[in-house]
């Protein structure tokens, strides 16, 4: 099965997402699936986190087009990334890289062959005129090397991975979701080495130190109670049952997090 997904900050009011799909349908018979078009405008990190969280759940061979591109029309490059399972296409601004790191064994190509772009290229809509046509031709079997040369000087964005040492895990905040849940780069595998459910643990986050229960899911905490859990992306989350933890704690992305097991 040929699949192309789309992620952007375009929204659905103005028809930009539909234009990309129209271009794809004129080139390929691949199935077209929206991941989201509601990324906060120009928020590359948010788009990167969503792509990294969603992409692994698609079948091997899926092509992902991601467009959060505040520098569209400038000298920033377009890139195609092959990974062990999927193909990622979008701007060279870090947007694709957390997914590439997570999927592993990636190779980055610059998109330069105009043969696989639309004949007329807008300075403001490379998602339609460059990235979508390239993705569509790739699903039709065009070799990666036909798209452009391999590069090593791409813009990187790596959320990293939390570390465990003795009786503590350390990491950082990498995303705050629409509910105000604080998502870190500490993995569930890391936590399982030293934590058991229904146990209070010490959490150092930002400039705060708080004792919080570690629970299986949000429903195991009382309403408005703070909690630590492993979310659907297999990452440690700090939240409030039916509340906004990021707002309450005044937390932002990249704030440090430390969990004490004992």
Short précis:
The chain has 6 helices and 14 strands. By secondary structure, it is α+β, with helices and mostly antiparallel strands.
Task: Provide structural commentary.
20% of the residues lie in helices and 30% in strands. With 262 residues, the chain is of the alpha+beta class. It folds into two domains: 3-146, S-adenosyl-l-methionine hydroxide adenosyltransferase, N-terminal (Rossmann fold, 3-Layer(aba) Sandwich), CATH 3.40.50; 163-260, Beta Barrel (Elongation Factor Tu (Ef-tu), domain 3), CATH 2.40.30.90. The strands form two sheets. Strands 7, 8, 9, 10, 11, 12, 13 and 14 form an eight-stranded antiparallel sheet that branches. The chain has a six-stranded mixed sheet with strand order 2-1-3-5-4-6, sandwiched between helices. The longest helix is centred in the middle third of the chain and has 14 residues, at 126-139. The mean pLDDT is 94.
